[in-house]
Amino acid sequence: MATMPDETAVFGEPKYWQLRTSLLKAIDEDFNSGDILPNERDLAARFGVARATLRHALEQLELEGRLVRKRGAGTTVAGPRVDVSLGADGEGWPGVDLRDREVIDCATVPVTEEFADTLKGRPSALVHRLRRRQFSMRQVVGLECLYVSRAVVPSLSTRVPNFERASLMLRQLRGHRLEGRHRAVELAVAEAEEARYLERPPGTAVLVVTTTYTALGRTAAVTVATYRADTCRLAFAEAGPTALRPAS
């Protein structure tokens, strides 16, 4: 395993950042995804640093998605980032396949002020909301909130379990011809509730993909997908020239 570089070569950098760079090189050269790193005492001795400096460097690499740290399980090398496809020729409507997703709930709720105008409803109007988590390699990578207008899916049975209710709603939605779809991507931080579902601390960097679906001449649904920036990367399919336009 590599050791700390000569400090004179990186003058001006905090010591934990020098260590982070050395650890990153060692991870790339000596370890594979899923490998467990030596314990903190051995790592600190190997690199000749205090354990507080080591912890700071490990925390930084965890934020970058290079390490996974769990109490009682040690520190392991993270797997490759998950590709989130944003191809122009994607599936269209939100997918019915729930095998890699965990349904949190599916209910009829008051529309939030944020989407009241988009879904053409008063702030007190009701919409259907589906919340589900996406997993990869048994690790949660995203939280999806789908809001569906009752003009498109009029009723939603409360007599069936959440999973079945979600499947029925998605199938009804996909029964309409999709007339248009628009996506916007932004970098944000996870609020308390989002962070809890993503199993990350509040304030964690996230990628937010908002998709608006049009059917029957109106906005039929809106999906807000929040992905962990430390485990995901956005993958864009190759397409023709696209005109850039300022954000609204």
UniProtKB/TrEMBL annotation:
In its keyword annotation, does this UniProt entry include Hydrolase?
A: no
| InterPro entries hit by this protein | Bact_HTH_transcr_reg, Chorismate_lyase_/UTRA_dom_sf, Tscrpt_reg_HTH_GntR, UTRA, WH-like_DNA-bd_sf, WH_DNA-bd_sf
Q: Which organism is it from?
A: Embleya scabrispora
* Record-level Gene Ontology MF annotations: DNA binding; DNA-binding transcription factor activity
The segment(s) forming the HTH gntR-type domain are 13-80
Query: One biological-process term from Gene Ontology?
Result: negative regulation of DNA-templated transcription
List the Pfam families.
GntR, UTRA
Alphabetically ordered keywords of this record: DNA-binding, Transcription, Transcription regulation
Q: What is this protein called?
A: GntR family transcriptional regulator
The answer, when asked if Phosphoprotein is one of the entry's keywords, is: no
Question: Which SMART domains does this UniProt record tie to the protein?
Answer: HTH_GNTR, UTRA
